[in-house]
Fold each of these.
Amino acid sequence: MDMFSNLADGFAIALTFQNLGLALLGCFLGTVMGALPGLGPSNGVAILIPLAFTLGLDATPALILLTSVYYGAMYGGRISSILLNIPGDEPAMMTCLDGYPMAKKGMAGEALSLSGVASFVGAFLATWGLILLAPQLVKIALLFGPAEYFALFALAFMTLGGVSSTNQAKSAFAAALGLGLAMVGVDTQTGVPRFTFGEVHLYDGLDFLVAIVGLFALSEVFIFLEERHGKSDAEGRSFKIGRLTPPLSMLKACTPTMLRTSLLGFLAGVLPGAGASLGSFISYSMEKRLVDKEGTFGTGDPRGVAAPEAGNNAAAGGALVPMLALGVPGSGTTAVLLAVLLALNITPGPLLFTNNPDVVWGLIAALFIANFMLLAMNIPMVGLFTRLLLIPPRVLMPIVAMVSFVGIYGISGSSFDLMVMIGFGVMGWGLRKLDVPLVPIILGTLLGNAMENNLRRAITIDDGNWLTLVDSPLSIGLWVVAITGFLLPVVVGRRVKAQMHRRRDTEGSIGD
Amino acid sequence: MSDRIFGVFGILLALGFAISAFAIEESFLSDAVGPKAFPLIIAAVLALSSAVIALRPDPEPHWPDFGRIAEIAAAVVVMVLYAQLLPELGFVIATALAAAFLGWRLGSGPLGALMTGIGTSVGIYVIFHLVLGLSLARGPFGF
């Protein structure tokens, strides 16, 4: 079997001391970031990008470090959901519903360990899903020409806002803003400068890493400053964890739930624009409808803890599929991971699987390893992480801000980039207040140039005929999906979103 | 009201973007599409979505009172000063000052804020510079 020999090669790459160490470090940092309210997967990974560069890592080790952080954050988010009733990051919000009641009943330990197992099952199955589905998607993607790629990028932008935003106009605004920012710099095809206003620093374009760290990390600092939310939410509370093993009967009762929601979460993750928050939301809703005969969901039902955790971890794995196979990320964190790959001069997409199989399979093998590390870390050592909840934001946020500055300064060594980053931080704060999603902005700055190049290539090939964009059945299909994906939330999305947004951790949170 | 202002601002932004797009000098060797077309499409989307935002505003967001806005403005000023003074003061001093300010504004006492600042600065210096070998800004004292 081709797949298994590839996977074996991947394990040969992942099983070096350096890569294992990076996976361990990533899992630990990820769990910490997931657990701390205010730091989620996307800004956690964003802050650590410069670290990956300063270590001088190659693409594979850098990706191993950062995806371990990503998986780890998905595990860590549940800890403060269960103990404090405050989600550590957005995907963990549904875990509050049954996790906190369980903790109040004195079953905090069971809830933590059960959700750890559910996270493991979700992530494990999703990694298999990634192995099986990504190569199939690559086969389809190889049929894509420039016109189809242009349609695919449009699809990504049009569906991205569908779930993450309450207002489609605002997500369209965000996407256009991001694309507009990507236009700054020298035009790659004709060499004329655009939107540089004579500023030499802008000829290279805006560095998307600067934009990401500013929008995601610094804006968080401003939000905390605004609310003067300097105290730890855990202050003055004592946690009684209790036994750290779920009873076998509980595991058995939850097994069908975990399997179903892993599948559902994975599918939600693969869909563009959905991401882990939606994964956990629909997993919880479906399980509630399916098995909640006695009306125990919401009062501390173990299945209500297992469902969203399996769902969001599976969605995290699923979201890697379009990012790796098509080069089009479907969620905030995978957009940040794409930025890492682009910064390392690796273009994800179908060619990645043939040109850099070591990156893909090494990453997949590392995901399996990281997942076992996380299971080991999150059940016996969960007490350590609960103590981290005591770190107050008045200590944490200065560290976040300064690490962001150091990282960006370390990459470029220029004060100009720091100024741009502060500008993005302020902009991110304002846009979050206005409920404009940030992820389309990032995606726009990342994909803007590729999108334009595909547009121009397609039309140039066809001698300036713009109709070439809708000339093949494949591209027409992509446009239909894109337009449906954009209009559907306007028609039916309000109800779902209203329910999802009822439980958000902080105002205008970034998402996953 | 915020959304209406925001929408109008967006339309102006789109207008400015379109004007600068028209101002792009085209090279005589150009492809069939040229460097202006895609920016103009973006400007159109920007203008359209801004118009929708202005015409159908969401409920008013919760804006902080003037004091809290001033708080953020102060933090921005400190960060800008930090970016400018970093090469003059050196990494350790500049970072300690900036982190101490942020910690203080987030509610630490003066002593606690100072400790946060120094701890953050020295901690980052040790991990990133001494252990990982990242070159940080050098001040008059070499750190």
Amino acid sequence: MKTLIKIAWRNIWRNKLRSSVVILSIILGIWAGLFIMAMTLGLNEQRINGAIDTYLSHIQIHHPGYLDDPNIKSTLSEVDKLEQVAGSIPEIKAYEKRILATGMANSAGGAYGVQIIGINPVNERNLTSIHQQLTEGSYFQKYKKNPVIIGKKLADKLHLKVRSKLVASIQNINNDIITSSFRVEGIFQTNNSVFDESSIFVREGDLRKITGLMAGYHEVAIRCKSIDQTDAVLARLQSEITRDKVEGWKDIAPELGYAQEMMSSMIYLFMGIVLLALAFSIINTMLMAVLERKKELGMLMAIGMNKWRIFSMITLETLFIAMIATPIGMLLSWGVIAYFQRHGIDLSMVAEGLSSLGVGSKIYTFLPTKEYWIITLMTLVVAFLSSLFPARRALKLRPTEAIST
Amino acid sequence: MAVITTKEITKIYRQGDIEVHALNGVSIQFEKGEFTAIVGPSGSGKTTLLNAIGGLDTPTSGSVVIDGQDITRLNSNELIDFRLNNIGFVFQAYNLIPVLTAEENVSFIMLLQGVPASKRKQRACRLLEEVGLSEQLSRRPAQLSGGQQQRVAVARALASKPKFVLADEPTANLDSKSTGNLLDIMAKLSQEEGMTFIFSTHDQRVIDRAKRIITLEDGKIISDVTV
């Protein structure tokens, strides 16, 4: 085997240019594939984190029928128990009770349907990052009466500025539509333009007075210490809270969960296509190498080198090429991905489109370590499979014909 | 006792609709230690006969018995093993492994036979010394002249301790001096070690040194002369 390895290794370098070209193509293929994977995963990660940070949190609890029919009277049944259980789960970083209402935001510039979120500003800071995403004004510090924080897109649509008056039409507990005026204290801009134009934040107490809902909550949002803990915390809460509906972020915003699953599949499909292209490049190169060495292979068979050894030699040559290219491709990919993970890829040119997807104008690449191992393994498997055809071609050579060519 | 016996071997090729009878019932025997040249014009069947004796090609009919074993009945894997352990080959174009040194080329065949590394090295060095290449052990084929490469090929053919050596036009690419040297070496090995050499050749210098000359024409033996 040692001599076979030696021959296979030296054979690679018989045609340095050809071997270098195929090695380079594998390196570039791996790099391109991994970089696109990292960009896709980074974009999706940012989209999910953005949604979780902005409003969603990891887990939300509602009255069982609230999300299908957001009736103001559909408040949570087990808030006290929930607080007790949440306090005993160490993986929970923070939770916040909210009241919600749907209504119309009106100004001299127009009217727009919104969700009005009544929050405790102090607690909400621990849960979401709206307070950090203000572009103008302040976060519930300035006005004593009915301050409101609105998104930039809504502000633009309704021609509102800080200190402008916003009139909201809201359904109260008696199902009457009442209007109430708010003063714009702050304008936020998240990466999600849809959220920015459809959600406004007011103080819980102000909303209670307007709606007449003096007790109860519509929503409890829970933030875990890490997104990976969501499923475990969710399972624990679901076992304890039975009268209210406990859902994870994937259930509340299924489009994010689907996107994550779809992108996970897509990246492998994409990598599969890249590897398929590489496979053809390897097959072509190795086939050329075999046909060029017909005479030599025929001689080896004539003097007594059996088929298994011929097969192993061709396979080893292919694997050596892949074994040279793969670590270099991985290292190059790791370097580039690490750079853009830190500095981001500036896509300001398409910022508006990205914003409607809930993503910022800078994409930070992200690729888990396990993906590097999976792709390394996939590349080596593809290289091995690619060697089968040229190796089979070599085995089909007849010594007499090969020698006489 | 004959080392090789062929009985009525025929080889028919098809070239489109035409049947070409490369060998037409060739029956012949080779004894141990013979130094034989198979001669004849191009297309007379020299190489076909050599291929049939060497188990590189299967005759259409007839048998090739080597040391009591009919090799026409062996399958391709068995034939590879048979060739490895019984037959040495010397080709017209040397056909050495270009990425291995002279010593490694000679050792390689012993490696295929499973000979231990120390014995391989020892025998390869001795054989290369016998063919006058003790100074070129670590040179690759591209660093050797044609004559030197063919001498390495002879050393390789002998390395597996074969029952006989088949050499197809071994001197076709060599100059007079190299041809002389090569023939001296092979004749010496034939005499001293009783090795059977069978050449197919056009080369008068080879024919002049042969002890037996078999002439083929149209796939038939037309003369078999012992000198």
Amino acid sequence: MRLRFWGTRGSIPVASSCQMIRNKVKQALLLADGQRFENEAQVDRFIDESIHFLFGHGYGGDTSCVQIETGNEFMLCDMGSGLRRFGQHIMQAQDSERPKVYHFFMSHMHWDHIMGFPFFPPIYIAGHSIRIYGGHQTSVMEDAFHRQQSNPCFPVYWNELKADIRFTHLEEDRWHEINGFRIKVMRQAHHGGSFGYRFEKDGKTIVYSTDAEHKQENEKETKAVIDFFEDADLVIFDAMYSLADMVTIKEDWGHSSNIVGVDLCLRANVKHYCMFHHEPAYDDEMLYAVFRETKRYKEIVSEGHSLQISTAYDDMVIDL
Amino acid sequence: MEFKTQQIEDVTLIHVKGRIDHRTAKDFENALKPHLDECIAGDFKKILMDMGEVDFMTSAGLRVLMIAAKTCKTCDKEKGEIAVAALQPLIKEIFKISRFDLILKVFTTVQSGLENMSSTSAGAKK
């Protein structure tokens, strides 16, 4: 099973500034130090092997969209701006016009999680099937999408879309069978409510839990989260803030912190903790610093338990 | 986790010992509650936590500490205050990682904390 991250940023898409790009180029040239390259392959090898991730790549700036690659039908979590790039990728395939089925699992309907939908070409092509699932009632989901596809938000209205688009409410705290997966839905603390998903297939478990504020003020609620995460191979977690921000000025903003994610994943015996929904104000250097600090925090508190930690970036691939 | 309190002039000095994690966070909260209640009643406005014997702390414990600090500040914006002192190196690192070092006063020693927080020179010398 393979996961591909098309968008990993929280709240609003961000782009590298001219100065940021200039700095990356400068660092790369300094590292090359006059080295000559015979061909592009040598350049690629140099980038992969000799240039730090911060200068050869970066975290990207598209908002939440994660693909679970499996079988003939497509499965994705959320429709942030990263969905636009996924759509481009799909349309470049030779069989792009062939009818396909897309399953979308929505954490919630906030702007940054639905803004990629109008830029997803299959919605304009007859024959494609778009299945949108969520813990919210279908009327709530429909309303959000209809309003986005109307004046003054967007010039192409809902009734002009050609694909077969259907909404399905998934009842929380029970198992659902969709596209060969067992899927459980959990309600999360966020303005208007959000939902996390536990996907199970072929002995592998992925948890997608973004836009959730885990306050840890009530052990019963915390235990429910731990049960939901338990023994997962991968937990994709809203690690938007520092703990200090989360419990002070950004309390009740609906997001969690990097170190709360470590504590919950350790308690739940998770194998791989992936930080997600990055603060838009953070640049690549800051995100990398947070990554190193989070790993260090894990070393201090893990008491020998293993937990792999990563920071999601646009185009990142994880194989399970 | 152990908890011992001393009143030194206008500063309540609380010695904490042991682990503060999800298992003991509630005990930590309960132990702090009477002091916060006194803060609310207007008695003790300054609390210094001697963390010298705290050897393990997670986000669950940090959260309790921050709620206590916010309660103190809410009761008296001018004088209400919680500070920590004598952090062990690893706990100090956790404060830095969580950015708590930016929002809570951290003193190297209990003595320096008392000297800074006490409004009387007598308190500072004890």
Amino acid sequence: MSSQTSAPLVEMRDIRVSFGGVHAVDGVSLNLFPGEVVALVGGNGAGKSTLIRTLSGAHPADAGEILINGQRAHIGNPRDAKTYGIETIYQTLALADNVDAAANVFLGRELLTRFGSLNDAAMESATRKVMGRLNPRFRNFKAPVKSLSGGQRQSVAIARAVHFNAKILIMDEPTAALGPAETAQVRDLIVQLKAEGLGIFLISHDIHDVFDLADRISVMLQGRLVGTVQKADVTKDEVLGMIILGKQPGEADAGSLAQALH
Amino acid sequence: MTQAPSAQSAPPSGLLPRVKAAVSAIEVDSRLLSMIVALIVIWVGFNIVSGGKFLEPRNMWNLSVQTASVAVMATGMVLIIVARHIDLSVGSVLGLVGMVMALLSVEIIPKALGFGVNQPWTWIVTVLVGLVLGALIGGFQGGLVAYVGIPSFVVTLGGLLVWRAVTFTLASGRTIAPMDSTFQLLGGGPKGSVGETVSWILGILACLGIVYGIYAARRRRQRYDFPVRPLPLDIGIAVVGCAVILLAVNHANSYPWPAKLAEQYAIANGIDPVGFTLGTGIANPVLIAIGVAIVMTFFATRRRFGRYVYAIGGNPDAAELSGINTRRTIMLTFALMGVLAAVSAVISTARLNAATNQAGTGDELDVIAAAVIGGTSFAGGIGTIPGAVLGALMIQSIRSGMQLIGLDNAPQMIAVGAILVAAVGIDQVLRRRAG
């Protein structure tokens, strides 16, 4: 919200993705400004994850265009997305369980010695540095991430995004696998990263998370964008009405919402 | 294998927890350590039962040569299994590459091309052609797995049948022998070994390598202010490592050339043949296997390629989303396996001094067993190259020891099969208990 006068960091225009004959994402346009958290909400199968995967490079869009800092961007795979400063923290915690934190943080972008070998010491050092910022109690630098707690694993996933100076962070259900204390930790982190000027897309089922963290809320239903609203302008019930009924704020009366909820 | 001291979760008193604490303090792979202990138990056991014959230089030297071929392929099978795949075709690829090399060096180069036998360069061309052929076959199979999406079990089961049939067809069922005189030396034997002096030099170089490796690792960690192991411990590891190497060299040198050969050698070199003996030293195939194991360990642990193979095994989706080219990595892993099968083809064809239709038959099972006994997990992502080499050595030790005490093929197969299943079973139980 703070910097809506500047150019958008990300502008997604008329994005379409279909699987067979199903339009999973059907002409959705969204934007994101620096220092802003945009929550993307909707029921299961609303197309949130599919939409965001076009930005992270996991599944390119069939049509539409993506602009980064006003420039047209071509994102065909995860590597392309990373070159634009887009980092993604996946719902499924996309970590290689059998290797340690540093190997995960640098996976696909390893630091090398001048002989082209892995520079494990440098990677561990950098990982210690970034972890010191995210989760100062993190100690298990030598253990495979499989042996870490959910929160520690999430820190590793976030460290991977943060270390490479992400400009745009996509968080797909970042707290879904976490306990209350760990969830609070991730929330603090989102606030911190926002203050540092990152733009964050937050996909969440948790309406409380969304209202605590987001500046704007974009609602999807059946592959289409119902609407994007300023958090300050709406109530939770109005957002629920958008999610469930696809009605604009004010359109759905309390009765039809209550009916739909039961 | 035996009671691995690492995975006990008893209260912090008594012997086992203290051993566990000591093992974790020295940061040595506990799994590897328990394999070494098991190997020592097997060796000492067979030595007692065989009345001291097992540990004699002659038997140990033969054991080392017999292990080489399977050990070379096991180093590649580790990476294949780590990446959640399997290669059933390695025995047939070995057979085919061996046959092609034999035809090339025995028939095509000397006869069809008219260069005559035993040219000094024949072996080089032969080996190069063999390695390239291995890479092409492995890469082709890997391509079918990675890009077409056919399960590796199916692709390499097909390969097992097809390459064996091609081997038979190429030579119309004949056995091709004898091999080129220089090529033969790659298979071992008294002349195919490096002799006493070179063995000592290599042993000392290996010791220097160990000391430098430990020193460099310490310096690297100190430069980043990471904790280092206590100095006496590092010194202890270096001393034990060097002692084992020098003992092995001394043992290989204590195996004398056959009297007849030594006499011929003495006469040819103008030495008094009376009482003249010559130590054999380390055999060429053993040096090849050690070299392969070192290079493969380097690839697996110090290069991006190895890191990607392990990451793919740990979580294929995560690897893909991290921007790793997983398909290319899988194809390269199979190509590397093909190259290693070709190296083993060189060793076994040279050692037998012939290429037969049956060369390498059933080797895929020994190779997979070696990798699995060495701690490679079919769930993917776990396995080490030194473990697989030790696994190969363990299988061959059991075969050789049982032969020595007069047990034939059937009980040997039962023992290897039982140990394979027991090793994985014990590992599962210990891992579950360790959590």
